[in-house]
């Protein structure tokens, strides 16, 4: 029953000692604590519901490179520690968990393939520090927001083009409407249209058309917006501000031509935090907001009051991810990990160019789960073929069978004829005997010769008339 | 299904009883094996396997067990597959089964190696397949021998496609018996290498030398050794034998090997493996890029015969290359992304040259797969080419009559003639006069600009639909209007000559109607996508499209009607944009926030409540309950709001109707249709409504009338039964109304007047009788029923029940 309940994964960027904590949302109990993790904002994600991935904040003065840790959710004690060229801030993964993108404070972006850990591409994405990365709904576009308020949209296909690995991949859009650092990016698809919403410290949220790059709507607030999230069903945008307020606004995306500007007074405000909002997310229970006042709140989405307040004493929460509690259960021995989605260490350096020629990719055959059922239907229907052929009598076997049967029939017929002929002979001889008998001793049987003659006739109707006459 | 199969089994066994007495033991076992008792039978398989292996051993020794013996053995094993499958569920039995199946392998391989009839090999392949599938461990020891046996059969390439496919399937499944990564990769590598080597021989002279090395280079990195050839037999000898002896290209071998690759890619495997994706793509490219044209330097080295041979095999090879590409896309899914650009280049380059209907259909389906799996990003790349090609394909019938000519069905089924003529553009220079003759005869019925087979058009329409849904918004300003007008044109043309149901298939005498129905369905579907896909302006052809959908909806009982109905539903949002409370969410919020902000949450939608995702209902309901109790002026204001809300949509609708100039015709039709229904419900006496009444409408309406009339007369009579003093009044009343009805019916059909009045008179009599009889008992109602039924049976005219209906209605009024 309780397997499908949501759990909340929380981490902070204060110090690595704080680590990751998993909370049960319903009761407020701590389910799990993973030590040594400090992730930058947008630097924690859940991969394929099986792994937690977190980029590690660079501890000043410790070492030059950064690190990305990957914990299997059911075996959280043994993380995969991958070290990168430089510290990675924001992370993002595709919906199917095949690729992970990471951005560095220097403005470089990295793209890994998770299954074999290959660093597929690094490129100079921004001039300033990368703040936020997100994949579009169909995973075909990558959206990056940077410190200077510029948003870039890249096409994954051109990013990963093997033959064109020049220094700067072609850019799909460059959106520079924001005047200050980007703090949040969310994608949503309305109808057949993909759009995304960006929030910025300049106090605006902007709604963009992802493909055409047009600005659809601007929402202006009096304070800086630090986090945004979307209601999963309704078109409601929640934006958390620097002073602890959460604005609730409607994303009205009718077929409007000119960019719409909505202002703060149209929004409904949720007040419950004292410090700046750091993260917003949704679970089945409702909105969850985290703030710099060391608390995070679960909001009752019916009455819009704080349903439960959690205290995270170790530090302000910077990242929240909602997972299913069932994923935390240790794997039973019965389920062999043969077909499990595998994760490799993310490589530090891209592969040399010439080795790309013999390149091969991991093939995940996820159809193996239903191995039994899938093969059941692939059987050959030899019997059907056989019956079909036998109906048309085409196969040599059937021909031979038929031949043999007809031979049998013929033999049976010949034997039957023989039999009949034998019987005939026998009868004839008996008749001859009788005739002889009568010819030799006619007077012994004179009592009723006529009857006898009749009897003879009935016994052998095939006898010619003349014989019986002569017999008489 | 099972029962049928049982019957079949029984039939074969009965037939085999008369055949020979030697197989009594088999029969015994197989009778036991019939799927009657689950537990018993699964345990009995083991002795069967023992029996079979023994027999196969002995069969090897004595010659008089001819092939039919094997055939029966194999057949019985196939029969027992039912049981084998079930058997696999029980670990203990499975162990024994593996052991025994292992004993079976050797004789089966021997069968494969012996020179025998093809049917035996086919059966042996099936048996091998069964064993690999269900007892993969059994074949482990014989892995190399099995590989060698199958490979030699495939490489000889002498057998029918079916046998070869089965063998290929076995080869593809072989690595499963080991189940590790290396064996899969090795097998794949071997297969690809042997395909490449075969192609080296085949394409000598029609492609640049450099290409032949590329795949090999990709497959075998410079430092590493070549793997041993497929089946451990030097490929050269086998293939040379095949090519030289029969003087033909090893197309069947190549296609079997490619089929094998496809199966390896798409079927399941216990662990993740590494696929040489670059090499496979390079192979596909190599196959697709050979178009039969001769490089000028090669001209002298190529005989016309050789060239002819290659060209005749090319379409098949191309088709298989596309199959391989499809399998790669299916198997790799999104992991193909690093190679997506390569695939896109390949596809677009080939799209421009490909003219064969079959290949084009395959290309379109590849395009669809790419679009769906990779989304908008792919649409940006593929859109221009897809649009160009689709416009070419769909525009090719400027005249609708092209569709009706039966000749263009020819190329779609008989695929081969066209490519050879296309690809022999250069080749004809060297061709002999004979060839030229054949070419010209092939070309004659084909007019390249007019005859696009309808199947290609369907594929093109489907692809456009996917393109519009996936990437309708992507930089579409340039092509959107062209596509929209093309789609509405196609849809109207497809629907012009009637709907493709069985009754009126006279529009295409030579074509099966199902294709035409598919075409209509695809065109309508694409049209719907073009309406719904996001655009900057409202769809310009919406009214025409709606007309088409409405017409299509009337074809009751067909697939088209179902689709049209759902299309109309989907378009409803577009026609009447809903004035939903989401719009007035901020305003309604504003009215509340100044007062008590705690009440606001009741209007908010919330996530997680079941079945109530609609914003409007929950909100309005909540508001209503909350506000009624409050009883202040807010409620009035809210009521006002609601009224406005109710009014606005209607006005909107009217506005929009006029604005988007609904064509007069459908409106008129609609109104008349609804009029008829209304009138028939209330009064039938309005003659002007009856004028419209014809055809189907009449048929639809009448049965309802007769029922209704009976019911209503029942009511009347029962009422009379209760109030007996009024009896005298009622007949008069009805009589008067009869007259009214008759006078009304004058307008309808004057000739029937006499009959109708007679019948009416009868009816009045009947009523009198009934009134007399219904003094007390309720059971008389039945009699009335009878009498009414009698009246109905008397009435020879169809229109009669309608008029009978008129009087009770007016009476009740």
TrEMBL record, chain A:
Signal peptide annotation: none
* Residues in WD repeats: 123-156, 175-218, 270-300
PROSITE patterns assigned: WD_REPEATS_2, WD_REPEATS_REGION
What are the transmembrane regions? none
Residue ranges annotated as coiled coil are: none
| Region: Disordered, residue numbers | 444-472
One matching Pfam family, short form? Answer: WD40
Keywords of the record:
Repeat, WD repeat
Which PANTHER family does the annotation name?
PROTEIN ROOT INITIATION DEFECTIVE 3-LIKE, WD-REPEAT PROTEIN 18
Protein name per UniProt: Protein ROOT INITIATION DEFECTIVE 3
Organism per entry: Theobroma cacao
UniProtKB/TrEMBL annotation, chain B:
Family membership, please give it: Belongs to the RIX1/PELP1 family.
Entry GO CC: nucleus
Per the UniProt entry, what is one GO biological process?
rRNA processing
What protein name does the entry list? Uncharacterized protein isoform 1
* UniProt keyword list: Nucleus
Major location (coarse): nucleus
Which organism is the protein's source?
Answer: Theobroma cacao (Cacao)
Question: Would you indicate the residue range of the signal peptide?
Answer: none
Protein localization: Nucleus
Give the InterPro entries listed for this entry.
Answer: ARM-type_fold, RIX1_N
Q: Where is the Pre-rRNA-processing protein RIX1 N-terminal domain?
A: 86-157
């Amino acid at each position: 029953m309780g397997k499908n309940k949501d759990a909340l994964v929380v981490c902070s960027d204060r110090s690595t000692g704080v680590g990751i904590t998993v909370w049960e949302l319903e009761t407020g109990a701590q389910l799990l604590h993973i030590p040594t993790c400090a992730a930058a904002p947008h630097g924690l994600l859940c991969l394929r519901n099986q792994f937690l991935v977190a980029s590690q904040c660079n501890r000043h003065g410790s070492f030059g490179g950064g690190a990305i840790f990957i914990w299997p959710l059911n075996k959280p004690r043994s993380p995969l520690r991958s070290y990168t060229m430089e510290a990675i801030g924001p992370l993002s993964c595709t919906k199917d968990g095949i690729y992970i993108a990471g951005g560095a404070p220097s403005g470089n972006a990295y793209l890994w393939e998770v299954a074999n850990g290959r660093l597929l591409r690094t490129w100079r994405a921004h001039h300033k520090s990368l703040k936020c990365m997100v994949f579009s709904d169909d995973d075909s576009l990558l959206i990056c927001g940077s410190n200077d308020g510029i948003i870039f949209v890249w096409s994954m296909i051109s990013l990963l083009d093997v033959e064109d690995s020049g220094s700067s991949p072609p850019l799909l859009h460059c959106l520079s409407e924001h005047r200050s650092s980007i703090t949040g990016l969310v994608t949503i698809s309305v109808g057949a249209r993909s759009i995304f919403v960006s929030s910025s410290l300049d106090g605006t949220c902007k709604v963009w058309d992802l493909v055409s790059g047009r600005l659809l709507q601007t929402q202006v607030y009096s304070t800086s917006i630090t986090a945004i999230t979307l209601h999963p069903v309704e078109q409601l945008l929640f934006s958390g501000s620097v002073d602890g307020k959460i604005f609730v606004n409607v994303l009205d995306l009718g077929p409007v031509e000119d960019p719409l500007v909505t202002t703060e007074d149209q929004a409904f405000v949720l007040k419950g935090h004292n410090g700046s909002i750091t993260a917003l997310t949704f679970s089945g229970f409702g909105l969850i907001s985290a703030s710099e006042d060391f608390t995070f709140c679960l909001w009752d989405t019916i009455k819009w009051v704080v349903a439960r307040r959690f205290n995270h004493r170790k530090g302000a929460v910077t990242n929240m991810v909602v997972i299913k509690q069932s994923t935390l259960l240790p794997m039973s021995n019965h389920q062999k990990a043969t077909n499990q989605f595998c994760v490799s260490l993310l490589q530090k350096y891209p592969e040399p160019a010439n080795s790309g020629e013999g390149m091969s990719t991991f093939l995940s055959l996820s159809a193996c789960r239903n191995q039994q059922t899938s093969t059941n239907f692939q059987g050959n229907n030899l019997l059907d073929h056989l019956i079909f052929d036998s109906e048309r009598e085409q196969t040599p076997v059937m021909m031979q069978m038929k031949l043999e049967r007809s031979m049998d029939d013929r033999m049976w017929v010949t034997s039957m004829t023989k039999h009949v002929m034998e019987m005939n002979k026998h009868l004839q001889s008996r008749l001859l005997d009788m005739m002889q008998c009568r010819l030799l001793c006619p007077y012994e049987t004179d009592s009723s010769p006529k009857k006898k003659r009749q009897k003879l006739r009935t016994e052998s109707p095939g006898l010619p008339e003349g014989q019986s006459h002569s017999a008489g | 299904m099972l029962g049928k199969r049982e019957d079949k089994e029984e039939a074969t066994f009965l037939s085999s009883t008369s055949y020979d007495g030697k197989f009594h033991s088999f029969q015994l076992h197989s009778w036991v094996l019939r799927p009657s008792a689950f537990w018993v039978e699964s345990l009995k398989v083991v002795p069967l396997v023992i029996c079979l292996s023994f027999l196969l051993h002995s069969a090897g020794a004595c010659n008089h067990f001819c092939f039919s013996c094997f055939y029966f053995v194999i057949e019985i094993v196939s029969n027992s597959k039912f049981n084998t499958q079930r058997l696999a569920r029980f670990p203990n039995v499975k162990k024994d089964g593996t052991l025994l199946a292992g004993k079976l392998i050797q004789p089966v391989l021997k069968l494969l190696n012996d020179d025998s009839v093809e049917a035996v090999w086919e059966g042996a392949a099936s048996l091998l397949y069964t064993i690999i599938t269900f007892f993969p461990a059994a074949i482990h020891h014989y892995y190399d021998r099995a590989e060698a046996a199958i490979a030699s059969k495939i490489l000889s390439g002498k057998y029918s496609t079916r046998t070869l496919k089965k063998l290929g399937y076995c080869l593809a499944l072989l690595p499963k018996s080991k189940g590790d990564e290396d064996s899969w990769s090795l097998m794949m590598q071997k297969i690809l290498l042997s395909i490449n080597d075969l192609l080296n021989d085949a394409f000598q002279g029609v492609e640049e030398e450099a290409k032949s090395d590329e795949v090999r280079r990709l497959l075998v990195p410079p430092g590493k050794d070549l793997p041993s050839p497929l089946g451990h037999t030097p490929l050269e000898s086998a293939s040379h034998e095949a090519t030289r002896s029969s003087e033909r290209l090893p197309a069947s071998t190549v296609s079997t090997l490619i089929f094998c690759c496809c199966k390896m890619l798409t079927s399941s495997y216990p662990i993740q493996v590494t696929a040489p994706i670059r090499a496979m793509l390079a192979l596909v490219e190599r196959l697709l890029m050979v178009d039969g044209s001769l490089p000028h330097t090669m001209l002298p080295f190529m005989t016309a015969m050789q060239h002819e041979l290659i060209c005749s095999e090319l379409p098949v090879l191309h088709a298989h290359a596309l199959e391989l590409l499809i399998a790669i896309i299916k198997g790799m899914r999104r992991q193909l992304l690093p190679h997506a650009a390569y695939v896109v280049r390949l596809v677009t380059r080939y799209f421009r040259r490909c003219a064969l209907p079959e290949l084009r259909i395959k290309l379109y389906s590849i395009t669809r797969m790419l679009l769906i799996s990779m989304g908008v990003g792919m649409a940006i790349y593929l859109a221009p080419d897809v649009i160009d090609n689709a416009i070419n394909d769909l525009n090719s019938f400027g005249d609708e009559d092209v569709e009706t000519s039966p000749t263009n069905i020819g190329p779609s089924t008989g695929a081969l003639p066209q490519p050879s003529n296309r690809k022999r553009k250069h080749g004809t220079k060297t061709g002999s006069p004979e060839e030229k003759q054949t070419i010209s005869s092939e070309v004659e019925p084909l007019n390249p600009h007019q005859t696009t087979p309808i199947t290609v058009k369907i594929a093109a329409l489907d692809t456009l639909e996917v393109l519009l849904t996936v990437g309708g918004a992507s930089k579409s300003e340039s092509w959107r209007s062209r596509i929209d007008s093309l789609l509405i044109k196609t849809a109207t043309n497809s629907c012009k000559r009637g709907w493709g149901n069985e009754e009126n298939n006279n529009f295409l005498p030579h074509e099966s109607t199902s294709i035409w129905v598919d075409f209509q369905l695809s065109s309508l579907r694409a049209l719907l996508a073009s309406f719904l896909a996001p655009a900057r302006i409202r769809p310009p052809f919406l009214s025409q499209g709606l007309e088409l959908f409405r017409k299509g909806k009337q074809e009751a009982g067909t697939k088209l009607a179902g689709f049209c109905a759902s299309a109309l539903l989907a378009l409803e949002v577009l026609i009447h944009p809903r004035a939903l409370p989401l719009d007035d969410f901020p305003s309604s919020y504003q009215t509340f926030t100044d007062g008590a902000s705690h009440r606001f949450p009741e209007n908010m939608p919330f996530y997680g409540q079941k079945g109530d995702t609609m914003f409007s209902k929950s909100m309005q309901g909540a508001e209503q309950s909350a506000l009624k109790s409050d009883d202040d002026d807010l409620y009035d204001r809210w009521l006002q709001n609601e009224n406005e809300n109710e009014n606005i949509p209607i006005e909107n609708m009217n506005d929009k109707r006029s604005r988007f100039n609904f064509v007069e015709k459908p409106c008129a039709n609609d109104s008349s249709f609804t009029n008829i229904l209304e009138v028939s419900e209330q009064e039938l006496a309005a003659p002007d409504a009856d004028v419209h009444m014809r055809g189907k409408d009449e048929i639809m309406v009448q049965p309802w009338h007769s029922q209704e009339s009976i019911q209503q007369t029942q009511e009347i009579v029962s009422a009379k039964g209760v109030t007996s003093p009024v009896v005298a009044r009622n007949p008069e009343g009805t009589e008067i109304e009869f007259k009214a009805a008759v006078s009304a019916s004058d307008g309808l059909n004057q000739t029937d007047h006499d009959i109708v009045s007679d019948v009416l008179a009868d009816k009045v009599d009947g009523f009198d009788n009934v009134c007399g009889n219904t003094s007390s008992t309720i059971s008389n109602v039945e009699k009335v029923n009878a009498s009414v039924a009698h009246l109905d049976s008397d009435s020879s005219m169809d229109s009669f029940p309608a008029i009978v209906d008129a009087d009770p209605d007016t009476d009740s009024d």
